[in-house]
């Protein structure tokens, strides 16, 4: 019965949650910290090095090696905890979490159990215009494990796995939420907000594709109004925000199907299989007792000076939620614009620089959200790559001035901006060299309009039968003939002059 959820299989993961059931979700998020060296040794944390080249006796767990705590990792963990409204402990300690797995060379992980660095926080998330407060149980510091490299894309169906210990010992914070999330969408939105906060803090690059942000989810279902939580399963292998939402929706259906068939949900760990769109049993779920936690004898407890913690608090940057509010108030932007621009601090910085330079925040927002993000994707770049690009700020500002002043059309402006960013040439120089100035000569415009009308009799007939949208098609044809240099507003007027009012066939 456990693997035959008829309700779940009869619906796709894109549909809503099962009627008559409430899903309860708690998240365990792992964030690799952006220190240059590992948490207990001096090995590099650089991603992408050849396997097993950034290792030493400490991170390989060789006998006689002793760990030494990285102060910067503690600072970053405290920084994250403060941003999540946590209480920072004055005294924290490390513990050994014992379990056997090939990626854990010591057969234990140095983590934190009963005295973590940060506890009792919260994070507000906007869901359908409503604020949902999600409790944070703890933020603790631990060491990363190694990485298994499977013979296929995932462990499911692999014939063998190899182990790369470069990641072993990279500093990691685990953020554990309370079971406050009530839908897969809320879980996704929470993760997106958390990712932005980590970027703003500068404590991690939070790249899911490189494993520096990973998420496990604890999922259960219950009848609405019930206070007791249902039996939870842990879902792993959630490598994208989309996968998080799909996996949680599927798992809610699977559990509801089992219960409606009279079965019992088992506490177990399941992996998300993107290919099949389902969760797959990995192992029965361990309990805390299975890990046999005990104090780490080789790492002394950490005493945190309250004045040091307070200095970190004062150094916190403006966080995404505050910046979204400020952009809406200071620049009169819609909530949607502010939300997109504030996803990454470098993107918001870029927008603000252009807005200040041009004095036209809405135009700056439209172009940054549209053309700039499109060009970044086309050039294989990310929003982080905008940091420090003052010439790009100047180029976009100049393009906006050219469009606003009527020197070029918006479509030509997009073409010029792309060439400027790719070749590092000023937009005005490109416009002069290629003769891209907007054509305002009415004689030339009328000639193009008549040419378009003659070449498109079906569109003309449609317009004369009363379908006014056909005029837009003809304007588009004129823009093609002019290679984007015609003034579209003037062209629209000329088309109507040539054809008369619509419906007069």
TrEMBL record:
<dbReference type="InterPro" id="IPR004413">
    <property type="entry name" value="GatB"/>
</dbReference>
<dbReference type="Pfam" id="PF02637">
    <property type="entry name" value="GatB_Yqey"/>
</dbReference>
<dbReference type="InterPro" id="IPR023168">
    <property type="entry name" value="GatB_Yqey_C_2"/>
</dbReference>
<keyword id="KW-0436">Ligase</keyword>
<comment type="subunit">
    <text>Heterotrimer of A, B and C subunits.</text>
</comment>
<protein>
    <recommendedName>
        <fullName>Aspartyl/glutamyl-tRNA(Asn/Gln) amidotransferase subunit B</fullName>
        <ecNumber>6.3.5.-</ecNumber>
    </recommendedName>
</protein>
<keyword id="KW-0067">ATP-binding</keyword>
<dbReference type="InterPro" id="IPR017958">
    <property type="entry name" value="Gln-tRNA_amidoTrfase_suB_CS"/>
</dbReference>
<dbReference type="InterPro" id="IPR018027">
    <property type="entry name" value="Asn/Gln_amidotransferase"/>
</dbReference>
<comment type="similarity">
    <text>Belongs to the GatB/GatE family. GatB subfamily.</text>
</comment>
<dbReference type="InterPro" id="IPR003789">
    <property type="entry name" value="Asn/Gln_tRNA_amidoTrase-B-like"/>
</dbReference>
<keyword id="KW-0547">Nucleotide-binding</keyword>
<dbReference type="InterPro" id="IPR017959">
    <property type="entry name" value="Asn/Gln-tRNA_amidoTrfase_suB/E"/>
</dbReference>
<feature type="domain" description="Asn/Gln amidotransferase">
    <location>
        <begin position="349"/>
        <end position="499"/>
    </location>
</feature>
<dbReference type="InterPro" id="IPR006075">
    <property type="entry name" value="Asn/Gln-tRNA_Trfase_suB/E_cat"/>
</dbReference>
<comment type="function">
    <text>Allows the formation of correctly charged Asn-tRNA(Asn) or Gln-tRNA(Gln) through the transamidation of misacylated Asp-tRNA(Asn) or Glu-tRNA(Gln) in organisms which lack either or both of asparaginyl-tRNA or glutaminyl-tRNA synthetases. The reaction takes place in the presence of glutamine and ATP through an activated phospho-Asp-tRNA(Asn) or phospho-Glu-tRNA(Gln).</text>
</comment>
<dbReference type="InterPro" id="IPR014746">
    <property type="entry name" value="Gln_synth/guanido_kin_cat_dom"/>
</dbReference>
<dbReference type="Pfam" id="PF02934">
    <property type="entry name" value="GatB_N"/>
</dbReference>
<dbReference type="InterPro" id="IPR042114">
    <property type="entry name" value="GatB_C_1"/>
</dbReference>
<keyword id="KW-0648">Protein biosynthesis</keyword>
């Amino acid at each position: 019965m456990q693997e035959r959820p008829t309700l779940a299989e009869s619906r796709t993961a894109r549909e809503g949650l099962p009627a008559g059931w409430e899903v309860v979700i708690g998240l365990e998020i792992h964030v690799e910290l952006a220190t240059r060296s590992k948490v207990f040794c001096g090995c590099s944390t650089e991603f992408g090095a050849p396997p097993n080249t950034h290792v030493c006796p400490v991170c390989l767990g060789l006998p006689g090696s002793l760990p030494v705590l990285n102060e910067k990792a503690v600072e970053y963990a405290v920084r994250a905890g403060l941003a999540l409204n946590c209480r920072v402990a004055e005294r924290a300690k490390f513990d050994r979490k014992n379990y056997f797995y090939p990626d854990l060379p010591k057969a234990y992980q140095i983590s934190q159990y009963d005295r973590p660095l940060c506890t009792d926080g919260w994070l507000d998330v906007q869901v359908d215009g409503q604020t949902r407060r999600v409790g944070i149980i703890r933020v603790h510091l631990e060491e990363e494990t190694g990485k298994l490299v499977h013979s296929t894309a995932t462990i499911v169906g692999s014939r063998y796995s190899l182990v790369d210990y470069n990641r072993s010992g990279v500093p990691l914070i685990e953020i554990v939420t309370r079971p406050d999330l009530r839908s897969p969408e809320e879980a996704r939105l929470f993760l997106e907000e958390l990712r932005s906060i980590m970027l703003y803090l500068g404590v991690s690059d939070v790249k899911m594709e490189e494993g520096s942000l990973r998420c496990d989810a604890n999922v259960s279902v219950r009848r609405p109004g019930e206070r007791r939580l249902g039996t939870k399963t842990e879902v792993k292998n959630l490598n994208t925000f989309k996968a998080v939402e799909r996996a949680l929706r599927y798992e809610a259906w699977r559990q509801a199907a089992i219960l409606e068939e009279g079965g019992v949900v088992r506490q177990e760990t399941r992996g998300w299989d993107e290919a099949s769109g389902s969760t797959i049993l990995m192992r029965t779920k361990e309990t805390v007792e299975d890990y046999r936690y005990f104090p780490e004898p080789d790492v002394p407890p950490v005493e945190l000076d309250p004045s040091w913690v307070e200095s970190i608090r004062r150094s916190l940057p403006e966080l995404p939620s505050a910046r979204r509010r400020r952009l809406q108030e200071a620049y009169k932007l819609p909530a949607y614009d502010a939300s997109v621009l504030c996803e990454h601090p470098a993107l918001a910085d870029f927008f603000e620089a252009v807005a200040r330079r041009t004095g036209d925040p809405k135009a700056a927002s439209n172009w940054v959200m549209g053309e700039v993000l499109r060009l970044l994707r086309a050039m294989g770049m990310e929003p982080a790559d905008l940091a420090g690009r003052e010439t790009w700020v100047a180029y976009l500002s100049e393009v906006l001035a050219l469009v606003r002043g009527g020197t070029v059309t918006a479509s030509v402006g997009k073409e010029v901006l792309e060439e400027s960013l790719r070749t590092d040439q000023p937009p005005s120089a490109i416009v002069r060299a290629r003769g891209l100035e907007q054509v305002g000569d009415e004689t030339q415009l009328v000639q193009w309009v008549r040419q378009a009308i003659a070449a498109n009799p079906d569109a003309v007939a449609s317009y004369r039968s009363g379908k006014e949208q056909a005029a837009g098609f003809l304007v588009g044809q004129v823009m093609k003939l002019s290679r984007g240099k015609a003034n579209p507003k003037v062209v629209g007027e000329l088309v109507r002059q040539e054809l008369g009012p619509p419906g007069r066939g």
